[in-house]
Each structure stands twice: as C-alpha cells, then as structure tokens.
Design brief:
Strand content: 15-25%
CATH topology: Hypothetical Protein Tm841, Chain: A,domain 3
Helix content: 25-40%
Shape: globular
Number of domains: 1
Radius of gyration: 12 Å
Largest sheet: 3 strands, mixed
Number of strands: 3
Order of helices and strands: HEHEHE
CATH class: Alpha Beta
C-alpha cells in the first residue's frame, strides 16, 4: 500500500509518541491499516478519531489517514 511506503520513507512511526488513525465517514476503512500497524509494525495503543467537518468535506467519503511522529 502506498501509504505504508510513504511512512517508511519518512523513517517509520516513533513508538514513543504513538499514532492516530483518522476516517471521514466509515470507521471500517481503518481495519486494514489497523491490522498492518499491529501485525507488521508491532505498534499498539493507537487512537482512532473522525476527521472534522472541514477536512472531511474536502477529502470526501472513504478517506483514511495516519498521523504519527517519524523516527529520527
């Protein structure tokens, strides 16, 4: 998945800070991302939140995102 390749290029997720999974309308779009974060990156404790109205309007339905601090 392109999202994970971009995350790797940035240095990966720094586990000291955790991460947040965001969705626009259907929480179920996060299932494959959540699975990847736990099974492949061995990260736990991520938070889940819904995108706000302004960003959600611009990205549209079916959007998923990961917010994280990259390793140095």
């Amino acid at each position: 998945m392109a999202m994970f390749k971009c995350m790797d290029k940035m240095g990966g997720v720094d586990p000291r800070y955790g991460y947040v999974l965001l969705y626009s309308d259907e929480k179920s779009v996060l299932c494959p991302i959540h699975h990847y974060m736990h099974e492949n990156l061995h990260l736990t404790g991520g938070r889940v939140a819904r995108l706000g109205a302004v960003i959600g309007t611009h990205v549209g339905p079916g959007c998923a995102a990961v917010v994280f601090v990259a390793k140095e």
